[in-house]
Automatic annotation (TrEMBL):
Belongs to the Lgt family. GO terms for biological process: lipoprotein biosynthetic process. It is a multi-pass membrane protein. Pfam families: LGT. The keyword Transmembrane applies. This is Phosphatidylglycerol--prolipoprotein diacylglyceryl transferase. InterPro entries: Lgt. Its main location: membrane. A 1,2-diacyl-sn-glycero-3-phospho-(1'-sn-glycerol) binds at residue 135. Catalyzes the transfer of the diacylglyceryl group from phosphatidylglycerol to the sulfhydryl group of the N-terminal cysteine of a prolipoprotein, the first step in the formation of mature lipoproteins. The chain crosses the membrane at residues 20-37, 49-72, 84-109, 202-222, 265-285. GO terms for molecular function: phosphatidylglycerol-prolipoprotein diacylglyceryl transferase activity.
Amino acid sequence: MFTLQLNSIAFSLGPIDVHWYGIILGTAALVGLLLAVQEGKRFGLSADFFMDLLLFGVPSAIIGARLYYVAFKLDEYKDDPLQIFAVWNGGIAIYGALIGAFLCGYIYFRMKGYSFWRIADICAPSLIAGQMIGRWGNFVNQEAYGGDVEESFLRNTLHLPDWIVNQMNINGVFHHPTFLYESLWNLVGLVLLMVLRRQSFLRAGELVLSYFIWYSIGRFFVEGLRTDSLAFEGANWLASLMNGLWSPMNIVFEPGYLDAAYGNVRISQLISVLLIVAAVILIIVRRRNGMAKDRYLDPIINYKTGLPAGSAGNSGSTSAQAPGTGSADTQSKEQ
């Protein structure tokens, strides 16, 4: 049966091909920026603050994502090292992107005089929104898909439109649209984060930690459906633990193929579990030892000036009034 599939190249400018993958990632970054700028205004943070963060953060995220991916695929690039730079063909790892972005963010926030946790909280919805949109780049590139499925499952069970079903036909075989599963999971997560950040009980740092918990839960189960997982040869008990945690999915889905010669533990699943555990522990410990005294809705204090963001003399901020009830002399200087 003839099926119309999408061209990964959106258009050409002379000899330069502009790929949908790049356009989609650019859109994801822009949407994330707009969300952060809008929320930042409530705390007196300027649009320039987040635009500069984007200028530094996006390259850092791309570099981190690519290095992370290539580190586990060295054999595929040793004969053609220039392909390492061909990020428009896909092959970037989201956890590598997060490592790069958070390292950049930590340095940038300290330079500007703000608590890492306070600004990371503002950026959390931007991160999950960017991931929600970015997954559609995998869709166009026909990558990061799941195991084999019947066409009827896509059309009659999931009720997907033709343009998605056709794109899930890889060399005559239909596959799980794992990009869609993760994108929808992130959409729900975005709504939850935006509701959660308006709650008075939320402490500084807990929104970004909630992001890690939510995203990692979804990523753990979606990863088990994929056929292109980065993996390593781990201890049998570790592989059994990962398989056991994923086993409830066996009720409705078969796991994606993982070559035993390549590894028995999916790296993203392991990292997801570690992030969930670490985030829960951090929330508990930070509350118990007083590191999370500030609430999300409290004014954001610049620890270099001692002034709330938006105050006169506080560089890089607007004249907007910071929300919340806390005063400048009662805010934590935690970084």
